[in-house]
Amino acid sequence: MNAIWVVAADGPAVGALLAAGHRLDGPVRALVIGSRELADQVSAAGEQVDWLPCGPDVPVAALARAAAAHVLGAGPVGVVLTGTGPGSRAVAGALAAALGAEVLADVRTVDGSGDGTVTVTHLLLGGLVEQQDDVDAPVVLVMDGGSAPEPAAAGTVQEVEVAADARLRRIGGEPALATGDDLRTATRIVGVGRGLRTREDLALVETLASALDAQIGCSRPLAEGLGWLPTDRYLGVSGLRVAPQLYVALGISGQLQHMIGVRDAEVIVAVNTAPDALVVSQADWTVVGDLYDVVPALVAALARVPAR
Ligand SMILES: Cc1cc2nc3c(=O)[nH]c(=O)nc-3n(C[C@H](O)[C@H](O)[C@H](O)COP(=O)(O)OP(=O)(O)OC[C@H]3O[C@@H](n4cnc5c(N)ncnc54)[C@H](O)[C@@H]3O)c2cc1C
Q: Whose CA is closest to 137, among 162, 102, 181?
């Protein structure tokens, strides 16, 4: 039978990919690119893991072609399931090219068999439309990986030696904030967007996050264009979808692609200089004002709230 491959290249948040893989008809195998710890975490969910070690100075993209060659060499492939992180996407592209397979992104549900037809629902037009398609295997599916898989029966880890593509090397610096806890479990999130003027001003955002005991998220440009925050911090249709009790959007315009990621928040508070920003009509509360004035005022007000 054609194999169902689950790719973990950006961390252990592949629980939803594994669950989707096991719902399909076909043997599930996991391809882990990264640390041994990551490989062990996935195998502890009872999975059969092929592990490609990847040092901190090597971008996953440098191993993408070798990873694809390994998967193809391991036997017939039915479905590849990858997460939305940058490493996973690089591997998804290499695998699709090597397999001559279709790629579907923003996948919500998968059903069927790796030997025949796979029924996929996926979002289009930046999340505006959901479409159901019947596609022939092999196919590469990119979807939200969910959270880390729960430990279950012991699996196996087989180390695979491949050579990294020496033409690719990391030249970017580290983001200002290190990658943190999974935002999907956060009860409060302060999100920041292009209303922030400089990377150094993240310190101001941290004062509010700290006062609220919240985690920091962001819009996509701050993570993917400016690189001020890690890519696992941006919220939206191509980032994380979160459901905190409180979401504070600082200097975020409220484009659909961002708001899809936060629409399950119980309360949304926006701080924006523009009274007609899209976020205003979607927020429960809006402070129309400059975040550089509003944030210190909020922090000072919160300091006056008696501790409970
Ligand atoms: C296919 C596709 C997928 C995408 N996926 C995502 C996604 O997953 N997540 C995502 O976030 N985006 C995504 N985007 C990008 C999205 O469309 C928007 O471009 C992006 O969310 C805008 O980010 P922003 O709100 O930070 O910036 P802007 O749209 O530039 O908004 C900045 C806001 O800050 C306000 N502002 C400026 N100065 C201040 C100040 N001093 N104080 C207070 N407010 C101020 C402005 O009035 C403005 O409303 C996607 C786009 C595409 C095409």
A: 102
Look at 177-181, 194-198, 241-245, 249-253 and tell me which has the smallest mean pLDDT: 177-181
Q: Which residues does ligand 1 sit against, CB inside 6 Å?
A: 126, 193-195, 219-221, 234-239, 251-253, 255, 257-258, 261, 271-274, 277, 290-292
Task: Tell me, in angstroms, the distance from the centre of ligand 1 to residue 233's CA.
Answer: 14
Judgement on whether residues 10 and 115 belong to the same structural domain of the protein: yes
Q: Which of 89, 196, 252, 259 to mutate to test the pocket of ligand 1 (most atoms within 8 A of CB)?
A: 252
* DSSP secondary structure of 30-72: EEEEE-HHHHHHHHTTT-EEEEEE--TTS-GGGGHHHHHHHHH
Domain count, the chain: 2
Domain limits for position 81 = 3-159
Residue with CA closest to ligand 1 atom 37:
195
| CATH at residue 203 | 3.40.50.1220
Both 287 and 187 in one domain: the answer is yes
The mean of the pLDDT values for the chain is 92
